[in-house]
Amino acid sequence: MSFLTQVLFSISFLVSAIECQGGGGGGGGGSGAFGVFGVFFLLIFLPIYCCCIGRPRRSNAKYVHASKVENNETKVIDLHVFQSGLWECEYFQYNKQHGPHYINLSFDNVRLEVTGSGFDDIGMYTLHGFYSTQTRRIGVTKTYQLGTGDPRQNLGHNVIIQLEWNRFANQFEGKWYVRTRKYRGSGPYKLRSSQQQLTLPPAYEKV
């Protein structure tokens, strides 16, 4: 169900609650009051919801430098976490898990930028973003190459991915965010270093 369909369905349901006739006497008044309140709630908060869904609270650059905890552990420069090479990722969308998919990532230890490329259920894509060795965070923008993969899903669009290192699971964890003309949403995303060395085709080579 598309985002617009969900919104229209919610409004229709609440409007019908206002106009419905309660066969049980006093029950009808309660439904009407709920409907009026529901429509009022939608009119106030729906614009805020539409503005925020599929969009992170902070840009990638601000996210990677914002630390939630002020202690010595988060301030330690930890270069071994950010190793160039083959990585694998998984993401959750449409009520199911996708992946793992392989990505070639290159970490620039001077500019603290990360680039890469890969292929998933949607199509081929490139990655570019930032990372911090002090907060152990990554913020990248995934750009799909139009004309590859699934033509129904691949719009040549961008996906924002913001991750933080989980030392207990030995992987990066966070969320992906998408805003297109057809879909808005977000979901869990995991990234971990691959133990399997693969020879990838030219489409996967570092950018």
Structure explained in plain terms:
The chain has four helices and eight strands. The relative contact order is 0.15. Helix 1 runs antiparallel to helix 2. It is α+β, with helices and mostly antiparallel strands and 207 residues long. The longest helix is centred in the N-terminal third of the chain and has 27 residues, at 26-52. The chain has an eight-stranded antiparallel β-barrel with strand order 1-2-3-4-5-6-7-8. It has two domains: 3-52; 60-204, Lipocalin (Beta Barrel). Keywords: Membrane, Signal, Transmembrane, Transmembrane helix. The chain crosses the membrane at residues 33-52. Residues 1-17 form the signal peptide.
Task: Give the topology, please.
Elements (H helix, E strand, L loop, with lengths): L2 H17 L6 H27 L7 H6 L6 H4 L9 E9 L2 E13 L4 E7 L4 E9 L4 E8 L13 E9 L4 E9 L4 E10 L14
For the largest beta-sheet, the strand count, sense and barrel status come to: 8 strands, antiparallel, barrel
Shape descriptor:
globular
Main-sheet strand order equals 1-2-3-4-5-6-7-8
CATH third-tier fold name of the largest domain? Lipocalin
CATH superfamily label of the largest domain: Quinohemoprotein amine dehydrogenase alpha subunit, domain 2
CATH architecture descriptor of the largest domain:
Beta Barrel
Task: Enumerate the spans where pLDDT stays under 50 for 5 or more consecutive residues.
Answer: 13-31, 41-50, 196-207
| Range of helix content | 25-40%
Keywords: Membrane, Signal, Transmembrane, Transmembrane helix
Q: What brief labels describe this structure?
A:
207 residues, alpha+beta, Lipocalin, 2 domains, eight-stranded antiparallel barrel, 4 helices, 8 strands, disordered C terminus
